[in-house]
């Protein structure tokens, strides 16, 4: 009878059964967040800490001071892609923080540097003449 049990397609070996049924989550290295993505993650974490359940997208929108739900969805999609958040499709409050904001690195935005332009009367005249010449050449092509 033991031979019949061993012939069973799933086998009787516990190591074979355990290795087939383990579902290990692949570890994704966390990528840095933009400042607004970090704001969204912190807002979600604080809401969950205070109430015990996740916020709706509209509540996140209100907490971040945004007018568009679409921008919140974009931040949430980025957080999912970067491995910080998990979403359950079809659930109203279907989100779970996988990695806390304390593990996140924030990308510092590059400062806007405006080039100083020298515009004396002669240079302004040259720029104006170039613009006029460019406008004329475009009209001729059309």
List the helices and strands and how they pair.
Elements: H1 2-6, H2 14-21, H3 35-51, H4 57-64, H5 69-81, E1 85-87, E2 95-97, H6 121-141
Antiparallel strand pairs: 1-2
Helix pairs in contact: 3-5, 4-5
Question: What do you see in this structure?
Answer:
With 142 residues, this protein is mostly helical. It is 51% helix and 4% strand. The protein contains 6 helices and 2 strands, in the order αααααββα. A two-stranded antiparallel ribbon has the order 1-2. α3 (35-51) packs across α5 and α4 crosses α5 (69-81). The radius of gyration is 29 Å and the shape is elongated. The chain starts with a helix and ends with a helix.
Any descriptors?
disordered N terminus; two-stranded antiparallel sheet; 2 strands; 142 residues; Arc Repressor Mutant, subunit A; 51% helix; mainly alpha
Short characterization:
The protein is mainly α. It has helices at residues 2-6, 14-21, 35-51, 57-64, 69-81, 121-141, and strands at 85-87, 95-97.
